[in-house]
Design a protein that fits this description.
By secondary structure, this protein is of the alpha/beta class. It is built from 22 helices and 27 strands. Bound molecules: beta-D-glucopyranose. Beta-D-glucopyranose binds next to loops.
């Protein structure tokens, strides 16, 4: 429907009707208006499958939803580093939504993983904004290609569950821009979602639903967002303030804010034009969906289950493979140990919980895919109780002893991580850790397959030969596990988050959780690998890490220029060869770093991900992977300009195996084109003049006066070395110079300041 037609409809609505449109009809449906033939539409969670509740409704996944397909959760798809795969999942979900008549899928969930403790990390994609933003964009593109809306969430800075509805994420401007908004910015600019869901929390003291800076100045005016903003379920605070800020739709509805809107318009506190804009956005969404209905769409359960299996296969991350213990051979006698072999943990709890029409366990998949193999099973632990069961452990050790290979299917139980609360530690249940130790003691050929939504500590790592991270891999995870364990597929996932050695190493360890609902993000931009690499701190497994059954070699890194201006693009190419004897996919990772720090310069991470691509290679095959970098690859957010700023300097373009492992690098000098305004005063230091071209020229002319002559002879016991004199001069405010240099007088400095501040 055209803008004009929507406006014509808005014009025919009464004030009461308009106010009604600004909240849901109920938990999942929007308001309709039969009088004007405005139909009713329904929305549903998301993000990794449909949770359509056609009957009893809630936002925490308590009541049953329709049977659907559970694709791998965000923690797993993040590790795929595969835009095409995520888009394919999105388009399958879009078709499903058409088939069951849902207008919007509430996802992707894309908050930054600030700490592995966040209970909802299993839904989120990454600790890195570029990866999170690109994969979110891929999901949006896939779903919206079927004319179903999306709702990237939770906008923004919602990186913990504890008191999510009342806490304030207190974040400096640069960190917000570079980390906690950059992911949404990418997704919005690349994929134009139909809706965005604002988060529950406040940012720097303002609830996001009533933050005009966030919802209008940044999201709409700067990024060009066209769709509507809806609240997270129950996130509304002051309805009128929220409308003014740009929050269009309150969910769920109807709530009791209608009268407040009507009153505000009637008493002049809210302009009816603002209300009209929000209503128009809501009608636009309704018609975008209803006018593009595909009533013939079919929810093809089997096909989508197969896609869920294929997807999981491309997400799993091989973390350890000593003595090439994997892939296993069907001739080996295997003992599958641990309840997750029979009943995998494949999704998280809360609003994303899907009523899967089928779940395929590793044991079932083994019976189908490798019927010739001898596979025994011992339960090992009971997921529903957090106790050590010595009987189950003893049975498991016995089974391991009787086999050639022991595969322990372990992880975190539902009760350990969920929407609504955070973890308090990074350990697995003690019963499972003891199980792994006992099995590894009984059989040195032990492999662990992990089912968890976020990083864990692995005190047992040294005792096992193999570790396969399956994350929460969706309903077909068991099939993917068997195909990878037995070499029918080659693992190609890479960690989208760092695994620290211990919780205490995490950058926000001291601040996570907050104090009196105020959360200080004092680690700044140093989130995840940005912190560990900059501190050169060992981690258990770094961001970007993952093994393959084949080997890849990189060669011939080429950059289109050794020096560019900020406005010029830089093309980077590298050749990747599969040097092993199995086909496999490699994740090519490009980082940009700025070596060393200029005096008084910008403090920045040693490297940041600026590009990635996943390439599939047959044995012996070589492919050239090309990236185009624009100024954002080199920029930081400048808080004087309130804009992106490229510092003139040498940068390194690095091709890495993971955030720590640089394989190839090339220097590039980038000349920035923006000037940060600065006004000199008597308190400006001499060093600032030295590093400012105009100041340096003036200093050169005044060399004699400023002591640029011969240094004083340095005796053996001289108290002031020339280095020290230089350093002291560098840091000296102009106002202090007359006290040290006789020839410098205040009027002269004032004249100097005038010259420096004059427009050149
Ligand atoms: C969650 C959202 C979800 C909504 C509806 C909220 O509790 O934070 O992610 O989409 O409920 O279920």
């Amino acid at each position: 429907m055209t803008k004009e037609n929507i406006q014509a409809l808005v014009n025919q609505l009464t004030l009461e009707e308009k106010a009604a449109f600004c909240a849901g009809k109920d938990f999942w449906r929007l308001v309709s208006c039969p009088r004007l033939s405005i139909p009713e539409v329904m929305v549903s969670d998301g993000p990794h499958g449909l949770r359509a509740q056609k009957k009893a409704q809630d936002n925490l996944g308590i009541n049953d939803s329709i049977e659907a397909v559970c694709f791998p959760a965000g923690c797993a798809t993040g590790s795929s580093f595969d835009r095409n795969l995520v888009k394919e999942i999105g388009s399958a979900i879009g078709t499903e939504a058409q088939a069951v008549d849902l207008s919007v899928v509430l996802g992707p969930a894309m908050n930054i993983k600030r700490s592995p403790l966040c209970g909802r990390n299993f839904e989120y994609i990454s600790e890195d904004p570029l990866l999170a933003g690109d994969l979110a964009a891929a999901l949006i593109e896939g779903i919206q290609s079927k004319n179903i809306g999306t709702s990237p969430k939770h906008f923004a800075a919602n990186s913990q569950e504890y008191h999510r509805m009342s806490n304030s994420s207190n974040i400096d401007e640069r960190t917000l821009r570079e980390i906690y908004l950059a992911n949404f910015e990418r997704a919005v600019k690349k994929a134009q979602p139909w809706t965005i869901m604002n988060s529950y929390n406040k940012i720097n003291g303002t609830y996001t639903c009533e933050d005009k800076w966030l919802l209008t100045d940044v999201l709409r005016d700067e990024w060009g967002y066209q769709g509507l903003v809806e609240t997270d379920w129950g996130a509304m605070d002051n309805r009128v303030a929220a409308l003014k800020a740009g929050c269009d739709l309150e969910m769920p509805g109807p709530g009791d804010n209608r009268q407040a809107i009507i009153d505000a318009v009637q008493n002049g506190m809210l302009s009816e034009e603002i209300l009209d804009i929000s209503v128009a956005r809501i009608l636009d969404l309704i018609f975008k969906y209803t006018e593009n209905r595909e009533t013939s769409a079919v929810f093809d359960y089997e096909k989508d289950h197969a896609l869920a299996a294929k997807a999981a296969e491309q997400c799993l991350v091989l973390l350890k493979n000593d003595d090439a213990i994997l892939p296993l051979k069907t001739t080996q006698k295997a003992a599958f140990i641990g309840q997750y072999a029979q009943k995998p943990r494949y999704q998280g709890g809360g609003s994303s919980h899907i009523n899967s029409f089928r779940v395929e366990s590793a044991l079932e998949a083994a019976a189908e895919l490798i019927p010739e193999a001898s596979v025994t099973y011992a339960r090992g632990f009971d997921d529903s109780v957090d106790t050590v069961d010595p009987v189950l452990i003893a049975e498991a050790a016995e089974a391991a002893r009787a086999a050639d290979i022991a595969v322990v299917f372990a992880g975190l139980p539902d009760s350990y991580e969920s929407e609504g609360y955070d973890r308090t530690h990074l350990r697995m249940p003690m019963g499972q850790e003891m199980l792994i130790e006992a099995v590894a003691a009984a059989n040195p050929n032990t492999v662990v397959v992990l089912h968890n939504g976020s990083a864990i500590e692995m005190p047992w790592l040294g005792k096992v030969k193999g570790v396969l991270e399956a994350y929460l891999g969706g309903q077909a995870v068991g099939r993917a596990e068997i195909r990878i364990l037995y070499g029918m597929a080659n693992p190609s996932g890479r960690l989208a988050e760092s695994f620290p050695l211990r919780l205490e190493d995490t950058p926000c360890y001291l601040d996570f959780g907050g104090e009196d609902d105020e959360i200080r993000y004092s680690e700044g931009v140093f989130v995840g690998y940005r912190y560990y690499t900059s501190r050169n701190m060992p981690v258990l497994f770094p961001f970007g890490y993952g093994l393959s059954y084949t080997d890849f070699a990189y060669s011939d890194l080429r950059v289109s220029a050794e020096a560019i201006r900020e406005s010029e693009p830089l093309t980077v190419s590298v050749d990747v060869t599969n040097t092993g004897n199995r086909a496999g996919a490699e994740v090519v990772q490009l980082y940009v770093g700025a070596k060393g720090r200029k005096p008084n310069g910008i403090i920045r991470p040693v490297r940041e991900l600026r590009g990635f691509d996943k390439v599939y290679l047959e044995p012996g095959e070589t492919r050239t992977v090309t990236f185009t970098l624009d100024s954002r690859a080199f920029a930081v957010w400048n808080t004087t300009l309130h804009d992106w700023y490229v510092d003139t300097r040498e940068y390194t373009v690095e091709i890495c195996a993971n955030a720590f492992d640089v394989l190839l690098s090339a220097p590039v000098t980038v000349t920035g084109e923006k000037v940060i305004p600065y006004t000199y005063t008597m308190n400006s230091i001499v060093g600032r003049l030295m590093h400012d071209p105009k100041g340096a020229a003036i200093l050169e002319n005044l060399k004699e006066v400023f002591g640029g002559g011969e240094p004083a002879p340095e005796g053996e016991d001289s108290a002031v070395s020339s280095e020290m004199a230089m350093a002291m001069m560098e840091g000296m405010p102009l106002r202090s110079l007359p006290g040290f240099v006789d020839s410098i007088k205040k009027p002269m400095l004032e004249q100097l300041i005038d010259m420096l501040n004059a427009d050149s």
